[in-house]
Design goal:
The chain has 231 residues and is of the alpha+beta class. It has 6 helices and 7 strands, in the order ββααβααβββαβα. The strands form 3 sheets. Strands 3-5-4 form a 3-stranded antiparallel β-sheet.
Amino acid sequence: MNAESPLAEPPVPPAAKRRQRPEEKVEITDPKAIRALAHAARLEVISELYSTQASRTATELAAQTGLTPSAMSYHLRALQKWGIVVPAATAGDARERRWKAAGTDFSINSGGGVASPEFAVLDLELDAFRRRVKAYARSRDEQRGRRQRGEPADPSSVVLASNLLYLTAEQRAELTEKLFALLRGYELEDPGHIPEGAQRMATMWSMIPDDRGNTSAGPSSGPSGSDGGST
């Protein structure tokens, strides 16, 4: 089921030139490294650096996560230890080190053990997405108040999709690759240049076996709310 917020879509700006870049995947398989990722701030850093492909200082990342710059520096060094982030070239003021993603794509693979540590990471990712949902809900309420007062408000939209599919192992692999290829097609060629009218959007996609209930039932879609954004 797909659900959209009732807010109107803004005019579509001219398409930005999208990134055409070779894939450089960073895959974490060491259980110790995976457990080291089970920290909200570290996951925020990974999401920011890998999604934007831009460099950031510890101070910039600290402001985004609510930590002190010294605490963020500690987390960045921990991520560097496992080959997830690397120092970046400095530009202008070189008094503070800049950091960037160690590759273009990031994944966790523990081999699917019963006590796989990536489940702790998933919990934190879901918590981070819930925080985005709540922040957007507050912003939307403020926008609604502005419209009621006759003040200009920035229209926005949100999409949530939830479906049940029956897929073979080959189809699961095919769907995953197609989706990632589609998302890569929307990455900016120059992360430092955000086109006018572009809005930063958070996306989350998940595929997990659903063995509840009668597996012989036909495909169906469950109810979805409209306060989260996921594709």
